[in-house]
Amino acid sequence: MKLFPSLQLHMPQIDLQEIMEHLRHNEERRTYPLWQEDDCLCFIARGREYRSEFHLNPSHEMQYSLKGDLHLHYRTPEGVEKVAVVPEGHCLYQPPMVPHSPRFAPDAFQLVIERKRRPGEVDRFHWFCPSCDNLLHEESFIVSDYGADPVSRAYDNFWGSLDFRTCKKCGTVMSDR
């Protein structure tokens, strides 16, 4: 007789060092999804030194600095940009819809855990003018599979358009990457 008949025992072990080594030698991908379940997704990310956008994620998010320090740029409800430094071995818990931009060195790694998106939830990516801080552009994605790398898709759309990178308020053009 089973004491817990509805319990599913699928508990994979993951070698984080092996995955970090794989990402270190893979120039095409900077993320590696570990799992995507109904209520939880987890991935490892390598180096986000190039990030300039602010991601608005509809779920809570936990970021653990596996290797190197994370400089999490975020915007307060008043729109002021601040930076939280998360040293190696530490983690940060972030509420939903906080505009954030995780930036860390090419040889640094983050373990990220968040809730898989529910039907109809939308992720947003915002870029701001480097001169006057005006909103330059917003990209929106329904993220049903994090393996599809929505951040790269948002970046491709943004950097591919001179119009998106040109400030409507002061005329500044954000330099190309």
UniProtKB/TrEMBL annotation:
One Pfam family of this chain: 3-HAO
Cofactor(s) required for function per UniProt: Fe(2+)
Highest rank taxon of the organism: Bacteria
CDD domains membership: cupin_HAO
Keywords assigned: Dioxygenase, Iron, Metal-binding, Oxidoreductase, Pyridine nucleotide biosynthesis
One GO MF term: iron ion binding
Signal peptide (residue range): none
UniProt record, GO biological process: pyridine nucleotide biosynthetic process
Keyword Transcription: no
Purpose: Catalyzes the oxidative ring opening of 3-hydroxyanthranilate to 2-amino-3-carboxymuconate semialdehyde, which spontaneously cyclizes to quinolinate.
Protein name: 3-hydroxyanthranilate 3,4-dioxygenase
Organism, as annotated: Pigmentiphaga kullae
